[in-house]
Known about the structure:
Layout (H helix, E strand, L loop, with lengths): L1 E7 L13 H19 L3 E7 L10 E4 L5 H14 L6 E4 L8 H9 L6 E5 L5 E6 L13 H6 L4 E3 L3 H4 L5 H6 L6 H9 L2 H4 L1
Parallel strand pairs: 1-2, 1-4, 2-3, 5-7
Antiparallel strand pairs: 4-6, 5-6
Helix pairs in contact: 1-7
Amino acid sequence: MATVVVPFRGSDPKRRLAPVAELDRVRLAEAMLGDVLAAASGIGRLFVVATDTPTLPEGVQHVADPRRGQGAAVRDALDADVSAGAPAPYLVVNSDLPCATPRDLLALAGALPHGGLPVAAAVDGTTNALALADAELFEPLYGPGSAARYASLAPAAVVDAPNLVDDVDTLADLTRLVERLGPRTRALFDALRLGRAA
């Protein structure tokens, strides 16, 4: 068993998804979150850190986002995990990875070096997912080049799983990944006819 933390910005979703209307961007963010949570549901305890309380599946715990950036949000969620007795390892998985599967998350957990962390980097060098042998390893290092900074914290492994590398920032990303999207995101993509807007 493991513990999974998913940071979620549902109240201010993906501005780069324009020209998609704001309400539809909110719906897309929620669909992507749903697909990430479905992938993580068999991994262990689930925590979502968000400013507002999103609609969550039964058993998923909400942690209030302190509104001081993603690093502070993840730190608060990890502290809540430890206080709740949630077991290590701790997987931190961004909510914009709608292609992620249980196998991808198990690969992330399985790549954990003793006392260290595996990192799944986005193509731009930011961090999409990581696993921590101990919650105390976490530092708020998100931003450009963060994957390399995380890898320097402790013994590290790089997880090059395409479904953890390919995040969704733009409508072009959604269109490029359409055949691998999780069912919630794919259904909404089709319903909104976003393939025509790209």
